[in-house]
Structure to design on (916 residues):
């Protein structure tokens, strides 16, 4: 079967420094793939490359067989790739509901005239996206906070809202950047279950960066390990745990 | 001005809020008639200026407050609208009187349009230039954008000063028809306010605000950030052009010096006082500032405070307003309204209206 | 145009460019540290000019004393302005602090209209600066030579301060990363004050020399030079002192030389800087000597 996402020899240089080099990953539909590595290993950079925040210096990024390297982030999102951010990036001054509704804008297919004249055609679309957004909030258990401002939510719920917002773009492929950061063990377990649940429910393929080994090992069948921008290992959790190169990267050379 | 957005429930004949809105609109209209009939010409001039300043403040707020782009080019767009409208509507005879140093270019000499087309063409030209400038400069970050737009507005002014055969240069244009009646001024202001309320509450408004709140996240939500910025900038320039046209035929005399970038600061003052990102705030502040600019005119004249008497200090009034701007920015950054908007529900919440009536969807926050 | 005229114009352009450079340094230093366009910088420049004027005309000081007093007072004034208008907003959104800077500029201009009178004042030029002498057939006002020399000396001292002293090191640290500098026990407030002191002193010197070159004081005289010098700093690469000097010289030379060679463009003189700015921002937004700073995602 062809990979949903395939990167081939992707390099990214900042100045003269290679943040990521020879980055090759394959992600197949329905998988949950982990991306781990010490701080500064190039994990977030590789997310930024795939989602279009950065343009690769060289290499190919194919999503559903189409080369997306160098495309604008919003165009990549429209193809069905969504993401969350390491440091939560919600729309601070907007309500929880509006945060979700922003993601609907691209698919509403509306124009300025009908929107500002409030033509019935527009109001219908508006009603429709409100329903969808509410249903989604219900799904992730945030219905009660619909009108609250996004940043008034407790930390864990902000993470959840960020995931819900990404889901609203109806992605096929979802990138989660350290979703469990700052969570206690119990919250992490809840998050794991949540990730599995949305994968099945929304028929997603997920790539996640995570430091909590418990989370990664719990949900990922396969993972890649990055160190200094280089992929040093890949395989199942068991293989990774026993890989000497990985152990060295994490513990340092003795 | 509180359109109940979406009633999730069954269609009610008319919610309490809608009735209140309707009633308020009727009262407003009646008041306009009364003012039109009773105001003396001096009061009427101030009243009209309120409306023009509302348009200016709202258009600047759209770009600065709702889209989060710091633009300082408003004076330039006003100038484009003002000059275009003035030149297109002036009679050939009046043009001959005005262009004494060099005659106007032949293709403009005999053009004379009615007010509405002149106003709209001025707006569209300003909007087109705004679009062009947006495409060029909206890739810049906030402070660079501020200085680039400011620079642009100065370029416009220099061009107006030098294009003798089109704009009559530094001499300016005099004796423009007094087209801007109370109905034109307030009609435009009300229409534009309603347009902006609808725009901000629409999907476009949400996209604008998402860019303001977090550009990178907005982009990853599929919002075409650059396209939306250009759109917002273009609309804002168009509205500034319209306001410029209204202003030209309100003052009946224009010259390039009126459109130095300090004029942009005057509008910025209104936006900041009202609340960056609040339509309600801009409307209230535009009226309040316009009236107090007139009311405080005595500060510039001779003062006698009992213990100290002066012989008139021109400029003291502007000292007051600039000091006010500083105080607000330092001690109350959110201005009058912050990002809040007027709504009947909000009025009920603070106890000025009885809390009752059917729960209407989202009245606004 | 013969060579002599060219030289004549060039000396003139060089002195204007040096003036621009001097003021641009103040912008670039403040921007480097606070990421703030100090819109009021041009008005500080104006204050410097007026203080020197009153020193001579009202307090009957000898011109050199008036200059020293004016520079000292302007420096204190600039530091005070930062305290009052910018420091309380240091952790606010950048737009707020920019509005505060605009407000400060607005306030200073209006205050100047009230206190100094809107009518222009003639600045008294001491004889030393007014002498004209002929060098190889070129008429040169001594002030046109004094300005580049003063600028060069100041630049040398400044570069030494920034690169070879503890204060300079702290300044560079703060401009690289204000939080990290704070963690390293650098007194950030003090460094910011010192930066404003230097910037304001340079603005005062610039204002006084500007008044010597164009002996006419007006409350709004700081606006145009202020904007142009900020643009010079952007062209050179904001945050870089060398860049500010380069941008200032470039702008002064382009402005005067274009007018000299193409007199029909005289009316557009004030627009050159802005056109240049937009071109530079499009082609190389970081300026000629600037470094790239992207946002971290």
């Amino acid at each position: 079967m062809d990979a949903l996402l395939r990167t081939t020899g992707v390099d990214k240089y900042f100045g003269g420094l290679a943040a990521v080099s020879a980055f090759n990953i394959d992600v197949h539909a329905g998988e949950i793939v982990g991306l781990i590595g010490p701080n500064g290993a190039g994990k977030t950079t590789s997310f930024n490359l795939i989602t279009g925040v950065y343009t690769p210096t060289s290499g190919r990024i194919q999503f559903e067989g189409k080369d997306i390297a160098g495309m604008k982030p919003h165009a990549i999102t429209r193809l069905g790739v969504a993401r969350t951010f390491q440091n939560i990036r919600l729309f601070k001054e907007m309500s929880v509901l509006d945060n979700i509704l922003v993601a609907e804008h691209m698919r509403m297919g509306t124009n300025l005239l009908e929107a500002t004249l409030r033509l019935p055609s527009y109001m219908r679309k508006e009603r429709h996206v409100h329903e969808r957004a509410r249903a989604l909030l219900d799904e992730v258990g945030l219905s009660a906070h619909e009108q609250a401002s996004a940043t008034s939510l407790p930390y864990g719920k902000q993470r959840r809202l960020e995931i819900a917002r990404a889901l609203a773009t109806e992605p096929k492929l979802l990138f989660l950047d350290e979703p469990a950061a700052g969570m206690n063990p119990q919250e992490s377990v809840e998050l794991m279950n949540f990730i599995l649940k949305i994968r099945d429910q929304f028929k997603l393929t997920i790539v996640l960066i995570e430091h909590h080994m418990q989370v990664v090992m719990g949900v990922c069948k396969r993972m890649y390990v990055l160190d200094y921008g280089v992929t040093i290992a890949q395989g199942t959790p068991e293989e990774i745990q026993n890989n000497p190169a990985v152990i060295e990267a994490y513990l340092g050379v003795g | 001005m509180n359109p109940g957005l979406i009633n999730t429930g069954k269609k009610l004949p008319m919610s309490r809020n809608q009735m209140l809105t309707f009633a308020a609109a009727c009262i407003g209209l009646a008041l306009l008639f009364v003012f039109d009939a009773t105001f003396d010409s001096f009061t009427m001039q101030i009243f009209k200026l309120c409306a023009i300043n509302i348009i200016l403040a709202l258009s600047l707020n759209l770009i600065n407050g709702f889209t989060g782009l710091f633009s300082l080019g408003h004076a330039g767009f006003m100038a484009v609208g003002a000059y275009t409208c003035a030149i297109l509507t002036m009679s050939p005879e009046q043009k001959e009187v005005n262009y004494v140093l060099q005659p106007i270019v032949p293709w403009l000499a005999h053009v004379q349009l009615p007010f509405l087309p002149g106003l709209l063409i001025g707006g569209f030209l300003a909007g087109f230039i705004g679009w062009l400038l947006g495409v060029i400069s909206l890739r810049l970050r906030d402070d660079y954008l501020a200085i680039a737009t400011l620079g642009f507005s100065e370029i416009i002014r220099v061009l107006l000063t030098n294009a003798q055969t089109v704009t009559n240069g530094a001499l300016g244009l005099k004796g423009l028809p007094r087209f801007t009646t109370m109905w034109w001024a307030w009609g435009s202001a009300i229409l534009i306010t309603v347009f902006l309320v609808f725009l901000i509450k629409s999907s476009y408004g949400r996209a604008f605000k998402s860019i303001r709140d977090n550009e990178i996240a907005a982009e990853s939500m599929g919002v075409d950030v650059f396209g939306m910025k250009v759109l917002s900038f273009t609309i804002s320039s168009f509205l500034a052009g319209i306001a410029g046209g209204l202003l030209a035929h309100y003052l009946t005399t224009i010259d390039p010096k009126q459109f130095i970038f300090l004029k942009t600061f005057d509008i910025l003052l209104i936006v900041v006082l009202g609340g960056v990102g609040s339509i309600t705030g801009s409307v209230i502040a535009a009226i309040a500032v316009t009236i107090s600019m007139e009311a405080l005119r005595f500060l510039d004249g001779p003062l006698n405070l009992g213990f100290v008497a002066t012989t008139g200090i021109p400029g003291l009034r502007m000292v007051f307003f600039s000091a006010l701007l500083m105080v607000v920015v330092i001690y109350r950054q959110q201005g009058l309204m912050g990002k809040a908007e007027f709504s009947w529900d909000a009025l009920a919440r603070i106890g000025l209206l009885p809390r009752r009536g059917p729960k209407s969807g989202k009245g606004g926050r | 145009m013969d060579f002599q005229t060219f030289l004549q114009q060039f000396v003139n352009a060089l002195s204007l460019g040096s003036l621009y450079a001097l003021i641009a340094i103040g912008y670039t230093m403040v921007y480097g540290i606070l990421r703030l366009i100090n819109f009021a910088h041009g008005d500080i420049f104006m204050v410097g000019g007026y203080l020197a004027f009153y020193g001579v005309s009202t307090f009957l000081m000898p011109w050199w004393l008036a200059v020293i007093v004016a520079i000292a007072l302007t420096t204190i004034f600039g530091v005070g302005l930062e305290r009052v208008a910018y420091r309380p907003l240091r952790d606010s959104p950048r737009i707020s602090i920019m509005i505060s800077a605009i407000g400060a500029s607005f306030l200073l201009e209006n205050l100047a209209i009230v206190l100094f009178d809107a009518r222009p004042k003639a600045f008294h030029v001491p004889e030393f600066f007014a002498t004209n002498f002929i060098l190889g057939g070129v008429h040169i006002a001594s002030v046109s030579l004094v300005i580049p020399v003063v600028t060069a000396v100041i630049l040398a001292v400044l570069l030494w301060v920034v690169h070879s002293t503890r204060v300079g090191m702290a300044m560079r640290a703060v401009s690289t990363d204000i939080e990290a500098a704070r963690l390293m026990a650098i007194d950030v407030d003090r460094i910011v004050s010192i930066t404003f002191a230097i910037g304001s002193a340079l603005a005062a010197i610039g204002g006084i020399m500007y008044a010597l070159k164009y002996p006419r004081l007006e409350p709004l005289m700081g606006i145009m030079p202020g904007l142009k010098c900020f643009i010079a700093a952007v062209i050179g690469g904001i945050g870089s002192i060398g860049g500010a000097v380069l941008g200032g010289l470039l702008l002064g030379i382009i402005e005067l030389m274009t007018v000299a060679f193409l007199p029909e463009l005289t009316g557009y003189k004030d627009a050159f800087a802005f056109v240049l700015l937009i071109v530079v921002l499009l082609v190389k937004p970081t300026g000629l000597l600037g470094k790239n700073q992207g946002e971290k995602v």
